[in-house]
Amino acid sequence: MTKKIFAWITAAALTGIPAVMSSPALAAPPDGLCTKADPARPVISQLPWAQQTLDPAAVWPYSTGAGVLVAVIDSGVDVDHPQLRARGKVRTGEDFFQVGKLRATFDCDSHGTAVAGIIAATPQPGIGFRGLAPGATVLPVRVSERASTDGDANEIDPLVLAQGIRYAADQRAKVINLSMAGHRDDKVVRQAIAYAQARDALVVAAAGNSQGDDDRSLPSFPAAYPGVLGVGAVDIGGSRVSASQIGPYVDLMAPGAEVVGAARRGGHNYYSGTSFAVPFVAATAALVRAAWPQLNAKQVSERLMATATPARGGSAGPAYGAGVVDPYRAVTEGLVKTSPAKMPILAHPPVDQQALDRVATWQQRVSQAWFQVGLAGTAALVILVLAAVVPAGLRRRWRPARSGPLPADRPRDEPPDQLFLLPPPSAER
């Protein structure tokens, strides 16, 4: 039996918003599949907090991700979702989970549809949710049917995953989204990722949701493979989601708590986990690759980290990586690789000795003048004192003066009425 090690990241779903979006042509799964399909979800019209924070509209004048192919290796993508239905937005892709030559344009679970929507959903009037890179093209690659089964993580066959990664690389995907994480290294997956990287694909993977209350570093693959961008999740306040794993593989953070994503059969849903932080970074990579086509995958990765916004918990650490992804800065900032120019050597002007001598002369003259003024003042004060003391001394023939007799009873200062902590004076007893 083939071993299975890569676990999907479970998603938290909240419902209760009325009105289900209608779709004239649902992407029906092949017969016999999706026996426990995710039900239709309502439309969410409000502007989600993640889109408010990252503000994708600000970067669209510079890049929409047009011309960049992003592979979503996941549970499939509902190609008939109204925000993914635009001609050419989602390719047919391929299903590696089922036996036979099947398309990947259907989704039993909404996991892949949510990821694809965060990347490339088309803006629509009256709907706040939209993808970060609406001009990008999505390549769906189906490697599993569901992200979770009755609340338990569903494992992915590493051979199937490796096939899907190689297929995406052969289709010339410039960004590969892997919203999955596992605790063990697997040779076939590692080799498949190296194969994709050799073809200039930037691989972005989830850090994982197994942290809990433990603050030690946990293993996570494929995020820990060389060259892979590992993504953790932050909440609306910018803090790391408690389940988001900590480790040296965490390169960037992105929104991943109660974020809005597209759902199968036309609606939206709320999702949580590092799975849904990954597409925000993958979409930003697509924006950069469209705006800076001369950059290779490694350079795009470096640019994303160099332009990240510092997170609340700090930066350059195993919990937050370089910080929170910033699409606007990643696309618009003019980064250079050259070292800063050296400051010119400070040239001191030649010393004007004549000017210094003149200043010294004036300072000496001012000091002498103040000394003479002080000496004259002291002499005048002595003369005044002598003028007052000498005549009085001559009149008394230099005998000491006498004071008047002291009174027999000296008045005593009476203290005010008070409470004494010690016994009062004898006069008061």
Automatic annotation (TrEMBL):
Pfam families recorded: Peptidase_S8
The subcellular localization recorded is: Cell membrane
Q: Which domain of life is it from?
A: Bacteria
Annotated Peptidase S8/S53 domain ranges read: 65-323
Q: Which Gene3D superfamilies match?
A: Peptidase S8/S53 domain
Q: Where are the transmembrane segments?
A: 369-394
**Membrane disposition:** Single-pass membrane protein
Q: Which residues form the signal peptide?
A: 1-27
Q: Give a GO molecular function annotation for the protein.
A: serine-type endopeptidase activity
Q: Keywords for this entry?
A: Cell membrane, Hydrolase, Membrane, Protease, Serine protease, Signal, Transmembrane, Transmembrane helix
What ranges does the record give for the region Disordered, renumbered to this chain? 399-429
What residues form the catalytic site here? D74 (charge relay system), H111 (charge relay system), S275 (charge relay system)
GO CC, sorted alphabetically, is: plasma membrane
Q: Which InterPro entries match?
A: Peptidase_S8/S53_dom, Peptidase_S8/S53_dom_sf, Peptidase_S8_Asp-AS, Peptidase_S8_His-AS, Peptidase_S8_Ser-AS, Peptidase_S8_subtilisin-like, Peptidase_S8_subtilisin-rel, T7SS_pept_S8A_mycosin
Keyword Isomerase present in the record's keywords: the answer is: no
| Any single GO BP term | proteolysis
Q: What is its main location?
A: membrane
Family as reported in the entry's similarity comment: Belongs to the peptidase S8 family.
What is the official name of this protein in its record?
Answer: Type VII secretion-associated serine protease mycosin
